[in-house]
Amino acid sequence: MRRIGGLAALLAVAMPAAGVAAPCPAGVIEQLDGLYRWQLERQRVPGPMLIASQLPRFTPGLAVLLQEATALTPADGRFVDFDLFSGTQVETFGAEVEGCTGQSSGAVVAEVAVRAGLRGRTGEAPQQLRYVMEPSPTQSWRIADIVYPGEPSFRLSTYLEQLLAPQP
């Protein structure tokens, strides 16, 4: 296991066991490491999520959805009601990239175990998120979507599109 990042981000790349996802390309790791370093730092500052600095990490379509959705407030009658990068409503403590699976489109899916919970209660099982990463000529890799666990699982892009859809 190789630790990367700072701020006690604990974002690590684990060598996968046989039959599991392969190691991720370096650019994928750099994007996710940077995102979670920002995630841990932004939790220290109360107030709304200011995602503008992170938008270059995302594909253009997802960046627009993120910018519009995170600008919503309860006064709008709709808003993002969970933490997008842990899939929970609690604090993120760190994340581990467990490996990547290549897709026929050239994209990769990065398996990320996100440790989240209430302060002082770090023993909870990690959230298993899947980041869909697309190659980009200018940024190496960009986050195209996040798939959250559950029955049924759901995608960030679908959630944001529904949240932003015109209300009757």
Give a written overview of the molecule.
Helix 2 packs across helix 3. The protein is α+β, with helices and mostly antiparallel strands and 168 residues long. The relative contact order is 0.19. The N terminus is likely disordered. Strands 1-2-3-4-5-6-7 form a seven-stranded mixed beta sheet. It is built from three helices and seven strands, in the order E-E-H-H-E-E-E-E-E-H. The radius of gyration is 16 Å and the shape is globular. Strand 6 and strand 7 form a beta hairpin. It has one domain.
Question: Uncertain segments of ≥5 residues (pLDDT<50)?
Answer: 1-19
- Relative helix content: 10-25%
Note the gap between the termini. Answer: 50 Å
Q: Bin the strand percentage.
A: 25-35%
Physical arrangement of strands within the biggest beta sheet: 1-2-3-4-5-6-7
SSE topology string: EEHHEEEEEH
Outline type:
globular
State the helix count: 3
Question: Which class of secondary structure composition applies to the elements?
Answer: alpha+beta
* Total E-strand runs: 7
How many discrete structural domains? Answer: 1
Largest sheet: 7 strands, mixed
Radius of gyration: 16 Å
pLDDT averaged residue by residue: 83
